[in-house]
Amino acid sequence: MRVDVVVPNEGAYAEQAMAACAELERMGFDGLWLTDHVVGFEIFQPVYGDCWLETLSTLAYVAGITEKIRLGIGVLVVPYRDAVLTAKMLASIDVLSGGRVDLGIGTGWARAEFFALGRQHLYERRGAYTDEALDVMQTCWSAQSDVAFNGEFHTFRKVRFQPRPMQQPRIPLWIGSRGTAPAPLRRAAKYADYWHPTGLSPEELQRGSEIIDEQAGRSIAASIRGRVASDASVGEMQDWLGGYRDAGCVQAAVDTKSATFDEFMTAAQRLAQAAAEVR
Fold it and tell me: Does residue 75 have a cis bond before it (omega within 30 degrees)?
């Protein structure tokens, strides 16, 4: 089982946490995951604050100070950004990192953030936009020559997209969900290399995986993004990870929601010990 750690790119110690990514790599984690919001709102609190390091530019920084560890975004809110530009940014990071990017995909939920970014016209159609944007990205990433696309939100032709990502045929897609609603599961069945839900129990994850695999007509790897208490013991972390491993998860992205940088690093050390026992 792959065990990754969610590194907070928001809050009071976000800059310290990013600078510590090389140390987290040395602890033995398999991947580092960032979160995607752009601005803060009162409605985000107390889960999130107002300070955010932008996800894609921060991922590029993390790529530059690490060597081999996987680099994940869990999840990129696709409608916040232009699809071709996003494809270019991700391809650039993938090339410069030596092919280490894992792309989590989400449609977003914060209406106020859509308005702040001038993307309010996409809010009600964010699912359809996300699906089309994924088609655009994959078209760009796989192009051998001129690229053309004709859709509801994107129409272009004679575009030349280089460089392509180092990972071929595409950067791995981790399709996120906050439950087992039909639309995210259909998206996972169509696009996913990995299903990457947030906060599901092992039992819920097993049921969701069965639905996705049946819809897809293929087996899609299941993962989980979840939270363990920052003061959990190594044994408690092992039990938490083991429950998802036994439910068929191939990966866990673990968020400790630590209050301080020192608390985060101490929790990460315990998590790394638990991971070594569970793999």
Answer: yes
Say what the pLDDT of residue 150 is: 98
Segment (H or E) for 73: strand 70-77
pTM of the model: 0.96
Record the tokens describing residue 142, joined without a space. Answer: 């796989």
Helices (H), the chain: 14-19, 21-27, 55-65, 83-96, 111-116, 126-141, 182-191, 202-216, 234-246, 261-278
Q: Which residues of the chain have pLDDT under 50?
A: none
Q: Is the peptide bond before 8 cis (omega within 30 degrees of 0)?
A: no
Report the C-alpha gap between 39 and 148 in whole angstroms: 33
3-state secondary structure of 199: coil
* Residue 76 amino acid letter: L
Helices 234-246, 261-278: inter-axial angle, 10-degree rounding:
50
**Are the CB atoms for 32 and 4 separated by under 8 Å?**
yes
